Amino acid sequence: MTGARTGAEKRILLGRIAGAHGTRGEVLITTFTERPEDIGAYGPLDDGGARTFTIEAVRVTGKGVVARLAGVRDRNAAEALKGAPLYVDRARLPPPAEGEFYHADLVGLTAVDTEGRPVGEVIAVHNHGAGDILEVRLAETGKTELVAFTGTFVPEVDLAARRVVVRLDGGV
């Protein structure tokens, strides 16, 4: 997802269908929710296109979340969904706690240096297990820099002003 989206069209990726589980149409979901079992707590999810998924049952296993989706009753139907993203309208999610942010709220923010000069735009937020990393596309070169999303390298996030202060002198 690149650029900022606003209002009702802003979507949050809550998970992705990793594949089929068993023979009765259950799917394994890789979740991005704080608590994996919450993947079904926000109502119907969609794939960003025409398909909508209603989660009827969820259980957490060692492999991830196993879910039963409405209308999916056999392994072939479940396998056909492999890779499908699971989005929800941003408005259906609770506000984040103080000092926490939804990744989608950070994407599209103008990145400025500690003097307030624009340096680029946040184009993605990554997390490979060691913490969040902002990917900033630099205005001057179009190249990207990775910046650890910590107080040291990102001392300020101002969602109202649509900007984030970044220190590019040693991000990641």
Task: Write structural notes for this entry.
- This protein has 172 residues and is mainly beta.
- Helix content is 5%, strand content 41%.
- It contains two helices and 13 strands, in the order E-E-E-E-E-E-H-E-H-E-E-E-E-E-E.
- It has helices at residues 75-79, 103-106; strands at 11-21, 26-31, 45-46, 52-53, 55-61, 64-69, 85-89, 110-112, 118-127, 132-138, 144-148, 156-158, 163-165.
- The strands form three sheets. A six-stranded mixed β-sheet has the order 11-10-9-8-13-12. Strands 5-6-2-1-7 form a five-stranded antiparallel β-sheet. The chain has a two-stranded antiparallel ribbon with strand order 3-4.
- The longest helix is centred in the middle third of the chain and has 5 residues, at 75-79.
- The chain is elongated.
- The two termini are 21 Å apart.
- Mean pLDDT is 90; it is low at 1-8.
The largest sheet, given as strand count, sense and whether it forms a barrel, is: 6 strands, mixed
Q: What ranges have pLDDT less than 50 throughout 5 or more consecutive residues?
A: 1-8
Strand order of the largest sheet: 11-10-9-8-13-12
Q: Name the beta content range.
A: 35-45%
Fraction of residues in helix? under 10%
**Which structural class fits the helix and strand makeup?**
mainly beta
Number of helices: 2
List how many beta strands DSSP finds: 13
Question: Alpha-carbon distance between the termini?
Answer: 21 Å
The sequence of SSEs as H and E is EEEEEEHEHEEEEEE
What's the rounded overall pLDDT mean?
Answer: 90
- Please state the CA-atom Rg, rounded to the nearest Å: 18 Å
Cα shape: elongated
